[in-house]
Design the sequence.
């Protein structure tokens, strides 16, 4: 779709969504009334900045049904995010929402080269979490064969891959690493599984990590973007050029904003803010995702959906050590350059025993002779220090297999000061 | 649909399915050729007995893709039964199969009085097991709101019920009993949850058990029938008259056969044998389900889909004690008549220490004074003995909460002699 046409479509849909939430949702009506805004004031995407933000806390404050913009009996499904504290973040879908999401996810699969002949093993959890059913409906919509495994039972997963000729693996990077380890335990080369495409989401991972797992499995890895509040996974993916994640701009308006809420220049890192254009159950205006990324403009593939950089962290994942904002993506991008280390690592922010000084310790699994490791040690610390604006971390090499493994999302940056 | 029209539809579909498997499946072509049968020999349902049987072992012998009747790339999903021994029983679905199954399940829900306004909590496991996704797609097809929980985390399930106003519970009887126990632990009356309809499958349960759980929750309970080889759950359900399970005869031809393969008279118990009429991925001719039931003719509701009795056991669930065939359903139907006992019970077949004599011990949870229990003891044993063709079991009352609980299917008849 030519860019001009796409933007006209966005404008048309934005007008409709503003009208819809104003007329059907008390929460948004009040927000707009408080600002003195009428739906007619929004003529198109150029007016997006007039609109109010939506915050994660608005979900909790309006629990359970306060964010609905359709009658409750139009809803056919709910999902919920893990909700580590208090009530989970709950979202609702109409029949059309389910179709829209499935089509959007199928578009991602298509872009990654997945076809009807493929066998797609779905390893994210089914149920309330959006991962499993998101991947599942996307695969069925595309028409490839879905193996609905869900997480865990890794040996059985490998049996299934071999028995049914799995070609596409969907899940988290963390889980692909777990698969690789179990392959090693039972003495098979992950490459022999014949996987062709890996589609990973729900975690922040670097290009170096991508190269590592592509090397382990011999597949092409893609980075899928999404979150519970925006359907779930599938709102964007990198294309085979791997220059950035295409966001499906016919379904969303994307902004990258600085902490003051002002737009970042192209290439400048900020918070991803999304407005839904086609969601019926819970349309959202300018939702502050807490994800950090930057606009990269247009991809050389020629698609008119713009690309953003791989998500480098979350505003709430960041830890501040001696005044420096530290994001997991910054550390990982350095570590993964070195073939001797990874892919498992953790970083710990801690305070010394007198409580007077903060430190950052980076622990990473490494293989190689002592001499080899000594050789890479100083350059690694130097590069980390430079990436972290002068904050010099401690670097600890530990043997492979000694760091904790998780089958779900791994939190790699741990603040031990609280 | 008038009965005559239904049978004409069955005949038309049967001709098509025989032609289809003959032309597209080497396993069936060989079977039919070996019998000297051509598709044209099957004119209608009156010729069903000319067709060969399909056995559970045919799935294992033709693993993985040998029972397919469409090209592999027409398949969009696989499911597998738990497969306690060796390779699991694996089945495959086309896009149309998924639609057919969802519509059939939605028809069950409709018959049970479920409507768009309802909130349907799905507790069977998602993933390879047909339970979760079967219930899930059925609910979405009907248009009620599905809460995709899957099994476990029972306290959270209860929170969800209260927060989102669940009105329909789908799962196993066993799991509903677990829910009731957790309600008791946290001090709430299961009736206060406001559940209106319970839809239970995958286990054999008696009318007495139905009365008990209806009494606990204050809902109306329905018995859903199905199995992995026939899509999954949803191929039949009892209607609000509760006279028997309506089998969807536009999708299946049902036979009840004796151990020699001869048709049983109406009312006579035998093995359920099913022929699929609308399945595309894996159509099956005369599949021997191992489930035991009997034809009950027509229901007073006026539907033309005939009814069968609640499944009383499986040919392979039965244990033979002193020459008597013992099925779980027989024992449960006696036990559940007594308000002092149940719903948890187990029966054990064992051999005495000299190996010369087989015994059946029935353990059931009971509440009441010693006097009360002494009063019901003898009549219960008498009735059990009569039901079991003269086999007199030992009867042991144990305190509530002492028998093992399972969150999945419960096997209540345990043979300890092997």
Sequence:
């Amino acid at each position: 779709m030519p860019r001009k046409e796409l933007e006209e479509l966005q404008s048309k849909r934005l007008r409709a969504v503003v009208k819809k939430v104003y007329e059907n949702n008390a929460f948004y009506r009040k927000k707009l009334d408080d600002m003195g805004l009428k739906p007619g004031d929004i003529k198109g995407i150029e007016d997006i900045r007039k609109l109010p933000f939506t915050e994660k806390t608005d979900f909790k404050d309006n629990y359970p049904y306060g964010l609905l913009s359709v009658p409750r009996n139009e809803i056919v499904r709910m999902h919920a995010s893990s909700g580590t504290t208090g009530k989970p973040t709950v979202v609702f879908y109409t029949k059309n929402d389910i179709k829209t999401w499935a089509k959007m996810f199928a578009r991602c699969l298509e872009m990654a080269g997945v076809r009807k002949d493929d066998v797609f093993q779905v390893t994210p959890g089914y149920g309330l979490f959006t991962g499993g059913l998101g991947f599942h409906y996307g695969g069925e919509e595309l028409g490839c064969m879905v193996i609905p495994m869900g997480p865990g039972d890794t040996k059985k997963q490998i049996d299934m891959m071999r028995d049914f000729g799995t070609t596409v693996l969907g899940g988290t990077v963390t889980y692909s690493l777990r698969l690789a380890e179990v392959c090693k335990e039972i003495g098979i080369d992950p490459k022999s599984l014949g996987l062709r495409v890996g589609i990973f989401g729900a975690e922040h991972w670097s290009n170096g990590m991508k190269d590592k797992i592509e090397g382990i499995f011999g597949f092409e890895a893609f980075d899928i973007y999404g979150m519970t509040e925006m359907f779930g996974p599938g709102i964007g993916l990198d294309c085979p050029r791997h220059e950035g994640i295409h966001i499906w701009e016919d379904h969303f308006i994307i902004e990258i904003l600085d902490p003051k809420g002002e737009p970042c220049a192209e290439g400048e890192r900020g918070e991803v803010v999304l407005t839904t254009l086609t969601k019926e159950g819970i349309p959202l205006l300018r939702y502050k995702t807490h994800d950090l990324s930057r606009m990269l403009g247009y991809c050389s593939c020629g698609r008119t959906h713009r690309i953003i950089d791989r998500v480098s962290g979350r505003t709430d994942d960041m830890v501040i050590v001696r005044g420096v904002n530290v994001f997991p993506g910054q550390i990982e991008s350095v570590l993964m350059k070195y073939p001797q280390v990874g892919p498992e690592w953790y970083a710990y922010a801690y305070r010394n025993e007198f409580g007077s000084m903060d430190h950052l310790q980076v622990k990473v699994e490494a293989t190689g002779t002592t001499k080899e490791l000594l050789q890479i040690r100083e350059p690694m610390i130097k590069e980390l220090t430079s990436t972290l604006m002068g904050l010099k971390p401690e670097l600890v090499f530990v043997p492979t297999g000694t760091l904790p493994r998780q089958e779900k999302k791994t939190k790699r940056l741990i603040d031990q000061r609280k």
